[in-house]
Amino acid sequence: MKRLSLTPPILATLLSLAPCVIAACATSQPPTSQSEPPASPSATPDQISTSAAPPSTPIIDIVSPAGTPRPPFLGHFSEADEDFLDDVQHAAFLYFWRTSDPATGFIPDRTTKPHVASVAGIGFQLSALPIGVERGWVTLNEARDRALLILESLSARPEIRKAGFFQHFIDAHTAGLHTDTLEHVVSTIDSALLFSGLLTAGSYFGGDVRRAADALFEHADFRFFLSGDDEPEAWKRGFVSLGWKPDSLDDAAGAGSVLPYYWIDSGCEHRLVAFLGACAPRESHRLSTHHYYSLRRTLGTDEAGGPMVWFPYSGALFVNQFSHCWVNYAAIGPDSPAAHGFEPARRARVDWWENSRRHTLMHRRKAVALSSQFPTFGPNAWGLSASDCPKGYCVPGLFPDPLPMPGARPLFDFAPDRPRDNPGDGTIAPYAAGTSIMFEPDLALAALRHARSLKTSDGAPLLWRDPSQGGYGFLDAYNLGAGWVAEDYVAIDQGPLLLAIENARTGLIWRLFHQHPWVAAGAARLGLAPDQDR
Q1: Which has the closest alpha carbon to 137: 187, 180, 98?
Q2: pTM for the whole structure
Q3: Which is nearest to 38 in space by CA: 476, 393, 399, 427?
Q4: Residues forming beta bridges with residue 256, ordered by sequence position
Q5: Pure H helices in 206-252
Q6: Are 307 and 403 in contact (CB under 8 A)?
Q7: What is the pLDDT of residues 189-211, one digit of tens each?
């Protein structure tokens, strides 16, 4: 297994491997294609000072203020709110139901490319099926049959897997390698999103679904993707790569190379990969609990929420949301890096639900402050995140002000970069604020109502497409300044919106995910078992 050098073809692969995390552990970004905007904000080489604060600077713990409401927000929503959320969820669910390919069961990654599926989208699809049953939109037998078809299709094509992980994009009609212009890369984060769906569906349906889903997850070898002593920079050793690329599509599961970019920080995607790695049932495939706590916790602050851990290579809101669709951090509370060998100066204790709540408040505050420059932005139009935009594909983002970390080591314990806020071109993706319903339900609900209320000049809905007329709710994104609305529905927009609303209302997906015995065992090893009373 060789390591890849940084050649132009590999850079092109990284650009589309995982939005806005292509430089997940590099101190500077690889160049991006001239035909599309950068995948993450620009950064200067300035370093965070570790000597600006006196030695007496108190240790920062990120915990919720007393009395902060936590999900599920039972009894919080009015009857009108519940009806509105039913409409939003039902429309999103129908994307996962109606667009399913009859041969494979897969939904498309986006509606304009019905021949291409993403395994991340399939992970959300598998998690959506229990919601459809519980809400009465499909029968238990219908959903079980759909889940089985999906799992059988995934199992039937070994060429789309390496070390138990899956190609990012696959053919929606055949379940084999796609023939599109997109990359052919085994992606650890997209596979992690798929695995989360496998475990959730297995818990809900049991029987043949459980056996098929467990068999796929059991083969996932997280250690295969770890960087080793051949990684020239010591601070990058021992972390999971973003992916693996075959040498030839004629033998797509044969010889190939691990990508030289790693999950090193504590964004949602990083933590989801590390969390699932600790849940692996085979010890030979499992990541250590130390690995999870090794992820860097760079500290910053914002006036809207206070101190927070942040990911310096993307300020997109989704990097503080995706893991929460399955991992019930709201019921876990502050973790304990010290119990896993890390001094408090190097790893703050963090309640990750509270951390994402603070990022939500920061995004809203800054969007309001920028509303004089961008007509789309405002108190009910916020949450900069990865989406389509008038020029193609954009990943804007916002960042807190860095905090000094005396006693911590640059690169090993925190990222020394100082990225600048990147509001992009003023495009907003409704799913970003909507998914924040897990953290700030009233603000998220107001944002969703605002998005649905927008009209064209002739009075037609601007963003909302009603299911009774063949639509699936909110289109991907919009930009009032440019007079632009996306033409696509996107699976990884619809999925987190659907799951987040369900968790905010009932906690269903959290319960299903955590009741899987492999998840429960991994969470216990990590010291992250949810409070069963929540």
Answers
A1: 98
A2: 0.91
A3: 393
A4: 246
A5: 207-218
A6: yes
A7: 999 999 999 999 999 999 999 99
